[in-house]
Design a protein that fits this description.
The chain is mostly helical. The chain has 16 helices and no strands. Helix 3 runs antiparallel to helix 6, helix 13 (about 230-250) runs antiparallel to helix 15 and helix 15 packs antiparallel against helix 16. The radius of gyration is 20 Å and the shape is flat.
């Protein structure tokens, strides 16, 4: 397998727009390179973690406005850079997959050279901002970009069905970045939050890959949801969901979680387990469809949002249940 990563690579044949690209189209193209929906999801985990870290440190209240803005902007730029690098690396398969055929490098709105320069600019800016908070936060930002661009996009994605498992560690990094921004260290609660997202990623993404299995098979990308039977995928979704819910409850004895986090996370976990087991039940009857696979995908987003929303509120209501 050859990855086309040359900065001088010519645009994809037939992808150049027939008319000159306007400023607004160019701006929208650059924005699309950053994968805004992914950035938004990552930021959902960042700010609540900062609130919780502030409370866990014993200082109470909320972090300073400057710190929150710097961390959110630096994190968004790091995630955007990672997404843009990914679009650059995957432009050869994006033109074949229906779900990615409108990306700006495929349509020709953005050239490969422009995308590469843009990616590097975002990456450097993000590290400068995160490093200005403290060196540990800057190093974690470097690690996040490296994990997504090199480990996932360049090494794992096209080679193994475990691509999203280990490559997904990049999506876990925002909680470490957020925690270190507030405390200048990484403590047990941050590790637990990291593991929650790590275990959440497969049951989040594998149902999506079931929905787009034709796309992934067309480009020989071995996403588990595309290359394995629905029962195999459903079993893995159930196992990872159980592990994720169990890990989330470790915040009670080890992370100082209080009543809000405990009630919301336990309830959301029970609901998500129900959705995962429903998928498995359907798989045993050969009733898995793209629609009910996507139901689990959307449920996973709601679950993560509820967990981190409760994490943000928890320090302001009551005290730790244990410890």
């Amino acid at each position: 397998m050859t990855l086309h990563v040359s900065a001088t690579h010519t645009p994809i044949a037939g992808s150049s727009p027939k008319t000159p690209v306007s400023f607004s189209e160019k701006a929208k193209g650059y924005l699309a390179l950053t994968k805004p929906r992914v950035v938004e999801l990552l930021l959902v985990t960042t700010l609540p973690t900062m609130f919780y870290a502030q409370g866990f440190s014993g200082r109470g209240g909320v972090p300073s406005l400057w710190l929150m803005v710097a961390t959110m902007v630096g994190g968004a730029l790091a995630a955007g850079a990672s997404g843009a690098f990914n679009c650059y690396i995957d432009r050869d398969i994006d033109k074949i997959m229906n779900r990615t055929s409108k990306r700006p490098l495929v349509t020709g709105v953005i050239t490969p050279r422009e995308a590469l320069v843009f990616s590097w600019v975002l990456a450097v800016l993000s590290i400068v901002i995160l490093w200005s908070i403290n060196p540990l936060t800057g190093l974690l930002g470097v690690g996040a970009i490296f994990l997504y661009v090199v480990v996932y996009s360049m090494i794992l994605k096209r080679r193994t069905t475990q691509n999203i498992v280990w490559g997904g560690t990049a999506g876990c990094m925002p909680v470490l970045i957020a925690w270190s921004a507030v405390t200048n260290t990484v403590q047990w609660p941050a590790v637990i939050l990291f593991l929650i997202i790590f275990l959440w990623t497969p049951p989040h993404y594998w149902p999506l890959s079931m929905r787009y299995s034709d796309d992934y098979n067309a480009v020989n990308v071995p996403m588990l949801g595309a290359v394995a039977g629905s029962r195999t995928v459903a079993v893995q979704v159930v196992l990872y969901t159980w592990a994720m819910v169990a890990c989330s409850l470790l915040m009670i004895p080890l992370g100082g979680a209080g009543i809000v986090y405990t009630v919301v996370t336990a309830g959301a976990g029970a609901w998500f387990l129900y959705e995962a087991h429903t998928l498995y039940s359907n798989s045993k009857k050969d009733l898995v469809t793209k629609k009910n696979a996507m139901k689990v995908f959307h449920a996973s987003i709601t679950y993560l949002t509820l967990v981190f929303l409760s994490l943000a509120i928890d320090p302001f209501v009551g005290s730790a249940l244990m410890g």
